[in-house]
């Protein structure tokens, strides 16, 4: 090969290497749960921008079967589902519904607002925090009540509060039914906006077993919710006593997620339990390890014990600690 061509090739290689050293790498988190592809772009100062890939999770051993009908393990940072069992099939959500209810309350309301408890909100069945009709309580305390004790009365109160705002009212000039309907419509609209196609909602609390979604879509929704620092604070709280505005009514709360409250599972940061007889025991459990956030979703445990969903989630996460390696 003529020396001139060799020199030209060497010069081109040097130029490419030099430019590579000046390129700015932009790491855009894949934690938006929607798995949007990262693309080549141009920065404001005209430099090419290449995304840096997150550490890639590799399974060193195959996953065993876990004792639930539907489950998944989601690595937020890579956007990968590492473990799956019937994870794209819709299943009853039960009180994991409250993940959507509370993130909408945070996005569309104000924590300092005061809600006057409606009789129909206070009369909800199942898990409650015993809100009283006419009680004045902050939205902040309703959020704690819905996410820690899984209060159905608190979830309906948030639905009534946000639904009325959607209808342009403070709640006094619109019916309770219309407010709840407006809120449920907002829940389904949000699911559609996030492209979570299997999530369908019929009530704010999860009492209706037609509230359904897949384990994978529920993991994606949780990844979205965990971006909100207030949501993260609520779901990681072990226990707390909240009161009405006057301080005359106390509501002791304890996180129903045993990985957070009772078991002190390493790295546990939330998120939400659920149960109805049809759904069986559900749990969305998030942990942080090695600068990674993993979400285990368990829908429909085979066992009917109170600890069933926590045990299955723990088993999945224990497996992840043994088997997942980031490279």
Please tell me about this protein's structure:
With 327 residues, this protein is of the alpha+beta class. The chain contains 10 helices and 16 strands. The chain has 2 domains: 3-51, no CATH class; 57-326, Beta-lactamase (3-Layer(aba) Sandwich), CATH 3.40.710.10. The strands form 6 sheets. Strands 6-5-15-14-13 form a 5-stranded antiparallel sheet, sandwiched between helices. It has a 3-stranded mixed sheet with strand order 1-3-2, with no helix packed on it. It is globular.
Number of helices: 10
Name the CATH class of the largest domain. Alpha Beta
Query: Can you tell me the CATH architecture of the largest domain?
Result: 3-Layer(aba) Sandwich
- Low confidence ranges: 13-51
What's the helix and strand layout?
Layout: H1 3-22, E1 24-26, E2 41-42, E3 48-51, E4 57-59, E5 68-75, E6 80-85, E7 91-92, H2 98-108, E8 114-116, H3 119-122, E9 136-138, H4 139-147, H5 152-166, H6 176-193, E10 212-213, H7 215-225, H8 229-236, E11 239-243, E12 250-254, H9 258-261, E13 268-276, E14 280-289, E15 292-301, H10 308-323, E16 324-326
Parallel strand pairs: 1-3
Antiparallel strand pairs: 2-3, 4-16, 5-6, 5-15, 7-10, 8-9, 11-12, 13-14, 14-15
Helix pairs in contact: 2-4, 2-5, 4-5, 5-6
What is this structure, in a nutshell?
This protein is of the alpha+beta class and 327 residues long.
List the main descriptive attributes of the protein structure presented here:
327 residues; alpha+beta; Beta-lactamase; 2 domains; three-stranded mixed sheet; 10 helices; 16 strands; 35% helix; globular
């Amino acid at each position: 090969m003529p020396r001139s061509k060799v020199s030209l090739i060497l010069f081109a290689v040097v130029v490419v290497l030099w430019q590579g050293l000046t390129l700015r790498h932009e790491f855009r988190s894949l934690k938006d749960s929607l798995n949007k592809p990262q693309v080549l772009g141009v920065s404001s100062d005209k430099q090419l921008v290449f995304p840096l890939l997150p550490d890639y999770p590799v399974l060193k051993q195959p996953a065993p079967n876990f004792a639930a009908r539907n489950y998944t393990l989601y690595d937020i940072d890579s956007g990968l589902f590492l473990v799956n069992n019937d994870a794209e099939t819709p299943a009853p959500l039960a009180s994991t519904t409250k993940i959507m209810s509370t993130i909408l309350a945070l996005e569309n309301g104000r924590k300092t607002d005061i809600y006057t408890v409606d009789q129909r909100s206070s009369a909800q069945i199942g898990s409650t925090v015993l809100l009283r009709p006419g009680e004045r309580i902050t939205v902040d305390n309703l959020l704690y009540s819905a996410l820690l004790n899984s209060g159905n009365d608190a979830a309906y109160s948030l639905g009534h509060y946000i639904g009325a705002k959607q209808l342009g009212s403070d709640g006094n000039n619109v019916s309770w039914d219309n407010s709840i309907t407006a809120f449920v419509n907002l829940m389904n609209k949000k699911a559609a906006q996030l492209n979570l196609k299997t999530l369908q909602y019929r009530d704010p609390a999860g009492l209706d077993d037609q509230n359904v979604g897949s384990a994978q879509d529920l993991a994606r929704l949780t990844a979205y919710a965990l971006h909100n620092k207030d949501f993260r604070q609520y779901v990681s709280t072990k226990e707390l006593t909240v009161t009405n505005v006057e301080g005359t009514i106390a509501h002791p709360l304890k996180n129903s997620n045993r990985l957070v409250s009772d078991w002190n599972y390493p790295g546990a940061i939330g998120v939400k339990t659920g149960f109805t007889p049809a759904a069986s025991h559900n749990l969305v459990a998030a942990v942080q390890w090695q600068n990674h956030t993993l979400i285990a979703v368990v829908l429909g445990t085979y066992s009917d014990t109170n600890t069933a969903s926590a045990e299955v989630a723990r088993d999945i996460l224990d497996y992840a600690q043994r088997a997942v390696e980031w490279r």
